[in-house]
Fold this sequence. Notes:
Belongs to the peptidase C1 family. This protein has nine helices and 16 strands.
Amino acid sequence: xxxxxxxxxxxxxxxxxxxxxxxxxxxxxxxxxxxxxxxxxxxxxxxxxxxxxxxxxxxxxxxxxxxxxxxxxxxxxxxxxxxxxxxxxxxxxxxxxxxxxxxxxxxxxxxxxxxxxxxxxxxxxxxxxxxxxxxxxxxxxxxxxxxxxxxxxxxxxxxxxxxxxxxxxxxxxxxxxxxxxxxxxxxxxxxxxxxxxxxxxxxxxxxxxxxxxxxxxxxxxxxxxxxxxxxxxxxxxxxxxxxxxxxxxxxxxxxxxxxxxxxxxxxxxxxxxxxxxxxxxxxxxxxxxxxxxxxxxxxxxxxxxxxxxxxxxxxxxxxxxxxxxxxxxxxxxxxxxxxxxxxxxxxxxxxxxxxxxxxxxxxxxxxxxxxxxxxxxxxxxxxxxxxxxxxxxxxxxxxxxxxxxxxxxxxxxxxxxxxxxxxxxxxxxxxxxxxxxxxxxxxxxxxxxxxxxxxxxxxxxx
Length: 462
Ligand SMILES: *[C@@H]1O[C@H](CO)[C@@H](O)[C@H](O)[C@H]1NC(C)=O
Ligand SMILES: *[C@@H]1O[C@H](CO)[C@@H](O)[C@H](O)[C@H]1NC(C)=O
């Protein structure tokens, strides 16, 4: 009996609340004098829809009642929350009057009738994916971790705001190596050890799809330092590329060829002069600017006043050619197809795993810096890898870097690799160091572009 009464009570409360949601009122609360009346008083009513509802005690007759929707709250003093059947989600209880419950990148709100409505988006990471990756760890050869930075973000958001390189429309093939293969390639090579102090730090693009600009500026910066033998160690400004390259889309992504052709035609200033803000802003550099007219501080070691310009970009499309280019002139830029599991990479040699592959988890494109290579032995098995630098900060991966399978075009990493040579300034300032002749002026201007002496065909964009 008691049970039945409770069921009935719950049923009528649910009904009352449905009613309440459809007719929010106020009704009894809107009556000017006696809002609620004793016993039966037919005048104690309010218009509702095309009829009347009542605020007298007589209205409260269970199933046959004709009370106004706010009668319980106004006349009986029952707070509206207690009239609802709460919802539960992951053990958390909440009512329609509570804020929606957040579950990773999805939210659930409680409806008046006790049902809940949840969004159902694929998140950048989730417990299921992490569980699968931990199971697969031994077979895939890399470790995953739970990054709090990814938690609460949708996969689509990560693809747009953490990547940001468009797949090239024109495939640049036709590169063939013209030199003889006499160059010796070591089994391990890391540009940061080979050119200490010349390789730029790991950057964090933030929630801005600017890898197309960040990777281009980073490769260009490294090459300025290396090819000037340290005279021009400069961090070039990706923000200028994000904000000033009109044919790309700033934080919504860009094409690598637009970034390289901007560096060739206009050039860029240094980071301090145009700091990265992880957002699109109004371009503040005119193509005709110099470091002086752009109000940048001039470099100490060389007499440069022009912006930093690069020669035409060229592509490298086989493993050996990429290695030779890195060893000879420094880091190169590679496009990479990014799957959902990559975001959770912690350490090891990355390869795309079977975890997280479904139609709604399509890949996005990214661009990174390749700075070296190596190999790892497990028994008789040798695993070759590239050392790459990502642009997600040092908290990600192996201090911001990652290793990825080499020689098998893993995630298309070897399919679109670009490099370019800088116009290094030759005129060195007199630093006034007595007796140090190396610091005196050693040149009078710019060297002819080294691509003319270069063993690769040069691919010109536009
Ligand atoms: C990952 O971290 C989030 C919070 O940042 C936590 O809610 C979740 O349970 C964690 N998952 C695993 C598998 O550790
Ligand atoms: C790369 O291409 C060159 C010719 O351009 C060829 O001699 C070499 O074997 C290739 N290397 C690989 C790893 O495919």
